[in-house]
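Dear colleague,

Thank you for sharing your sequence with our group. We've completed the structure prediction you requested, and as agreed, I am returning the results in plain text so they can be pasted directly into your records. Please verify that the sequence below matches your submission; if there's any discrepancy, let me know and we will rerun it promptly.
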Amino acid sequence: MPGGVDDPAAPSGGNVYDRRVCRDLPGLGWQVHETVVAGDWPGPDAAGRAELGRALAGSADGELVLLDGLVACGVPDVVVPEAGRLRLAVLVHLPLADETGLDPERAAVLDAAERRTLRAAGAVVATSRWAADRLITHHGLPAERVHAAPPGADIGPLAPGGGTGGGPRLLCVASVTPRKGQYELVQALATVADLPWTCSLVGGLGQDPGYVERLRELIARYGLEDRVHLAGPRGGPALNAGYAGADLLVLASHAETYGMAVTEALARGVPVLATAVGGLPEAVGTAPDGSVPGVLVPPDDPAALAAALRRWLSEPGERHRAKLAARRRRTALAGWETTVRSLARALERLRRDTGEAA
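Please find the predicted structure tokens below.
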């Protein structure tokens, strides 16, 4: 089973997901052959399109091929002609048109391309139930061909937090792009500059350099250079240390299919303040006793975000409540084995429905 994996060296949530399922599927009896296709996806040049075409053409008739949606969905003219002879599954981390910063014409082109690809696929896998339902409705897909396999979480040590004389430590883990809402987050932080806190923005800086520069200028305009830090991408021990030192994870995203940073924080008992957009409420969830491990605010509502920050920063009782709920939620998180089994069931159904014996 070849898989299309977009830049496995990049420390993004989608690539963490791809690497984990490629690593763990063999434990369920699947043979996995990974294929990395170079290109600026979802809009590759001719060389990238040709490389994907060769990878698909090299797959035997009837072979089950799992493609990352970032690679597959923008080039239906390459993918769709192969769908009739391959058992094609597409893993959608984020619908292409949901990326912010796209002009309407480009978004419409990507949306139409994605629809063609997904309608041709034998199975579509989304990373949350919310995202699966949206793909069904938006693209008119048969519900029985769309499956949800939310990301798992590795339970880590309880985070001691870092709030001391400098106040609580806030952490935002997200690529620095308009969709992730760091600009609005900094605006909200400026309204609570009278309270003690620091905030680390962890995430890649190369996807939208113009946005990063505007964000730096905003931080300087508010005089927050000593309190808001653009830390760049982090992974492994460095990212673990960031979670260990955090008192609150903050996400001001405009669109999310799930939000792996949420469950990574909760896996360490760190509460969450996030926008109630897309699959984020599903990721935040509730503790076994019904308590909510943090706060959800309406998207695109800077005043609500600022008010929630002020309440959390100024009320010790609220911080204590959220921390207890996060620690309870931590014990109920699903692991990656649940993710991989959900994906395996979707692939097995595709294989069975297309006539191949298990």
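Summary note from our side: The chain has two domains: 2-152+335-353, 169-330.

Kind regards,
the structure core
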